[in-house]
Amino acid sequence: MSSIVLLLLGLGGMALGFFIYSRFLALVIYKLEEKFVTPAHEFEDGVDFVPTNKFVLWGHHFTSVAGAAPIVGPAIAVIWGWLPAFLWVTLGTIFFAGVHDFGAIWASVRNRAKSVGTLTGEVVGKRARALFSIVIFLVLLMVNAVFGVVIARLLINNPSAVVPVWGAIAVALVIGQLIYRAKMSLPLVSLIGLVALYALIFIGPSVPVTLPESTAGVSSNALWILILFAYAAIASLLPVWVLLQPRDYINGLQLFVGLIALYGAVLIANPMVVAPMFNTDLPAGTPSMIPLLFVTIACGAISGFHGLVASGTTSKQLNKETDARFVGYFGSTGEGALALAAIIAATAGFATLADWQAVYHSFGQGGVLAFVNGGANILSAGTGLDVAVAATMLTVMAALFAGTTMDTGLRLQRYIFQEWGEIYNIKWMAKPLPATLLSVVACLALAFGAGGADGAGGLLIWPLFGTTNQLLAGLTLLVIAVMLVRRGRPTAVVIIPLTFLLVMTLFALLTQLQGFYQNGEWFLLTLDLVVLVAAILVTLECISAFKRVKREYQAENPT
Question: How many domains does the chain have?
């Protein structure tokens, strides 16, 4: 099987989705208005509410949602074969993720940039908001704690990536000043940033950086995690234009350059897909593809975390409501393109089927390493680039995207604590600094409380991320559906994906529940039950609200 076929079919379908389907959503479903005053203008404060160029905001939104997950999920899920992963990524991007991300921005912008959790309380009810908060908090806790571990391990395993990963922060700080202070043209600033970023990537292998195995009794892994959270805390408190926006924007450009290089190498080298279309020789212990495929691949097809970003930071920076189509739908398209690249690298980046099977010898194998090693082989074959440099480039890409997601994730967690402070009249919690400290403490408590001195505790509850994350996406779509009914808009484009998603997610939760019970994993079993009960109750609340709002609309607008 030629990898070029997958490339052309996948990107072609996503392009049609953006140019045709997203236009239909903008005109008929969400009915965007260019003159609508967005919260970025209404509440402009220079810190969180900042009207932003749509290309810069796209960079922020895209890189915040496109962490390591659209690489890890697809590069694990190909164990069932390349076709199921390919179809879910392509169709999910077009009909699921685009509708969800675009809709979450629209819903938040139309409600003073409130987060999806707060919005649930107003659209559905207070009980639903309280239950939804449990799901949201768990998702953010998982993302922040786990990505801290992922980045730490990437930096330890790839010392050549340390200089470009941390150097990117300095580049971003300069970019922010050039855009907002010096008012330089965006194309020129973009070029400067890209040249600086790729110069660091080529310098990295010559200046590898490693931490001592132990510093004052703290392991190198734990020390990196502490450094990362200290950085993320500072980044979450800074005005978005100083670091968050420019870092995300330049990383977005860097990713597209990397994707163009990788896809160009595919077109030149035309590596064959050695993985089977459907894997009939699955390793022992591999779970059933249905429903696990649809939660193993979350980001890259549809992800509830995107709704948190869309309603947490993106909606506060939207300059015009009409920009929501480009930022939201095209942002999800970019992530779909990254997931497609992960599939190609993890299935065509190996010389033989035996080499591929040696990596995918058990469920959960592959992931970032399959993407980096497979992608580096393709880049080297297509461009002549040294394999070590190509691997460094892809490692930096993965680490930078995990980092930008962690930046935004901690900021979102800070917003959640602040919203709780406002809702429950806890004044000190509603302030940025205490809310940030609470967020960091919660993540570190999980990392070190459950993971011991190594700080890898986030990985303990990671098996529940896929189901919890997809549940959040389904519930976000339910909130969007209720808003559409109130306005008398068509809802099928939202109802169909949310129904499919909720059915598969609840099925997956029950499947995992059985596995946790059989393996005696009582902590995970308890969390699974909490998420399952919250999911059922919030779903029932949303369905009740949906029916009630529909009756009210029909009574007010008799045909």
Answer: 1
